[in-house]
Structure formats: structure tokens, C-alpha cells
């Protein structure tokens, strides 16, 4: 069973703040840092998640994930072009993949991923994307096509939007901005945990 709440953070310090609240699935999404810093944070996150019984997902940095004996990575379409899927499989690393249209979904499913992410379901402030909001019907369509492969919804999600997202068939809801920008990220994480549990 896929965890319904999927937290994404940009620094290990934020992971250490929020995981003890009961987060069981967390992605470390580090951008624009030197390799030594990336590996330092991944190592710290790996050990912290192990102690707290949380699953760490390493975004982008699949080679560091293999080297540092992490168990799960997330790759986008561009990351997929350079990733060594055989090396990842041999190392026992599970892979989650981003998708935005049917062709990407077909290609992603051919890699037998641990999940496929669909986004942006709603408008996102996090980054400029060529894709417009996908909407909930698209989540339902993804669920049908993906079959046994879990579907992660991402992009513009808030606790208020979760009932619709899960009713449409998403197995999990991923979030960056709503928690990253919250005045009280710990309180907001608790709100998400409650909303995902109901
Ligand atoms: C769960 C999840 N879904 C999608 C993404 C986006 O991945 P990608 O397209 O590679 O973009 P970046 O996050 O690397 O900017 C994700 N990270 N996690
Ligand atoms: C990082 C990312 N990837 C997306 C995709 O569609 O692949 S949407 C997205 C933004 C993350 O969501 P939020 O709006 O919660 O910041
Ligand atoms: Mg990426």
C-alpha cells in the first residue's frame, strides 16, 4: 500500500523537523547544490528516516542514491534520459516517475515503476511548467491506465483539495509549497496527516 501523504522538502533540516510528526514518505528534493553537499544531506536524511521508520525518496540524484545505499529515487522525464535503470534495479532501488501526458505515462509504465506521478493537478507556484493544470478527470484516467501501479497526484495541492484528489483515484498526494510556505509548517503538516488519514 502506498502512503497517502507524500511530503517533499528541499533541505534535510526541514525533513528532520517534520518527519517526527508521523510522516512516513518523504522526498528530499535538493536543487543547485554541489555534490558534496547533496551527499551530506542525503546521508543525514537516510539515517534519520531509518530511525523514524520513514521511507526516503531521493529526487534526481540517482547515482548518489545508489552509492549511499538509499532504496528509492524519483526521476522526471529529463532525469530518465540519463538514468541507468539497470544499475538502479541491480542495486535494489525503487523508482517513482513523473508523467504529464499519455506518451510519458506509457514510457514510464514500461519501466515498471513503484509509482507514477501526475502533475500539475492544480496550478503550482513552485516552478514554471509547460503543462497546464491536469484536473481531477485526468487523475481518474491515470488510475485506469496505470492499473496496479500507484498514482501520485502532485501540483497545487492543499488539504481542502484532498477529498477530490483521493475520490478521483489518486493513491497518494504529494506537496511542496503548501507546507514549505506555511507560517507554521509543523501545524500544517499535522493538518495534512489528518486529511490524508480520513
Ligand atoms: C512525486 C513527484 N512528482 C513529480 C516530481 C517532479 O519531478 P521532475 O519533473 O524531475 O522535476 P523536479 O522535481 O526534479 O524539479 C517530483 N519531484 N516528485
Ligand atoms: C515539483 C513538481 N513537479 C510537478 C509535475 O507536474 O511534475 S508539479 C510540481 C510542483 C510541486 O507541487 P506544489 O505545487 O505542491 O509545490
Ligand atoms: Mg527531476
How would you sum up this structure, described in words?
With 198 residues, the chain is an alpha/beta fold. The protein has a single domain (5-197), classed as TIM Barrel, CATH 3.20.20. 43% of the residues lie in helices and 18% in strands. It is built from ten helices and eight strands. An eight-stranded parallel barrel has the order 1-2-3-4-5-6-7-8, surrounded by five helices. Strand 5, helix 6 and strand 6 (115-118) form a beta-alpha-beta unit. The chain is globular, with a radius of gyration of 16 Å. 36% of the residues are buried. The mean pLDDT is 97.
- The low-confidence runs, each spanning 5 or more residues with pLDDT under 50, are none
In CATH, the homologous superfamily goes by the name Aldolase class I
Percent of sequence in beta strands: 15-25%
Judging from the principal axes of the Cα atoms, what is the shape? globular
Report helical residue fraction.
Answer: 40-55%
Stated plainly, the CATH topology is called TIM Barrel
Q: pLDDT average, as an integer?
A: 97
**Alpha-beta classification:** alpha/beta
Number of domains: 1
Rounded to an integer in angstroms, the radius of gyration calculated over CA atoms is 16 Å
Largest sheet features: 8 strands, parallel, barrel
Number of strands: 8
Task: Present the secondary structure layout.
Blueprint: E1 5-9, H1 12-18, E2 25-28, H2 35-52, E3 55-59, H3 62-67, E4 72-75, H4 77-82, H5 85-90, E5 94-99, H6 102-109, E6 115-118, H7 136-146, E7 151-154, H8 162-167, E8 172-175, H9 177-180, H10 185-197
Parallel strand pairs: 1-2, 1-8, 2-3, 3-4, 4-5, 5-6, 6-7, 7-8
Amino acid at each position: 500500500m502506498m502512503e497517502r501523504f507524500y511530503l517533499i522538502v528541499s533541505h534535510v533540516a526541514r525533513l528532520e523537523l517534520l518527519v517526527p510528526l508521523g510522516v512516513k514518505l518523504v522526498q528530499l528534493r535538493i536543487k543547485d547544490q554541489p555534490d558534496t553537499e547533496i551527499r551530506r544531506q542525503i546521508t543525514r536524511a537516510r539515517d534519520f528516516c531509518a530511525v523514524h521508520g520513514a521511507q526516503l525518496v531521493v529526487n534526481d540524484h540517482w547515482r548518489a542514491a545508489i552509492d549511499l545505499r538509499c532504496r528509492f529515487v524519483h526521476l522526471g522525464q529529463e532525469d530518465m534520459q540519463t538514468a541507468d535503470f539497470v544499475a538502479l534495479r541491480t542495486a535494489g532501488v525503487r523508482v517513482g516517475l513523473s508523467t504529464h501526458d499519455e506518451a510519458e505515462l506509457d514510457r514510464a509504465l514500461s519501466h515498471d515503476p513503484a509509482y507514477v506521478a501526475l502533475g500539475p493537478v492544480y496550478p503550482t507556484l513552485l516552478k514554471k511548467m509547460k503543462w497546464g493544470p491536469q484536473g481531477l478527470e485526468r487523475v481518474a484516467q491515470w488510475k485506469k491506465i496505470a492499473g496496479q501501479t500507484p498514482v501520485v497526484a502532485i501540483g497545487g495541492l492543499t488539504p481542502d483539495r484532498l477529498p477530490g484528489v483521493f475520490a478521483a483515484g489518486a493513491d497518494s498526494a504529494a506537496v511542496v509549497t503548501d507546507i514549505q510556505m506555511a507560517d507554521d509548517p509543523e501545524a500544517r503538516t499535522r493538518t495534512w496527516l489528518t486529511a490524508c488519514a480520513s
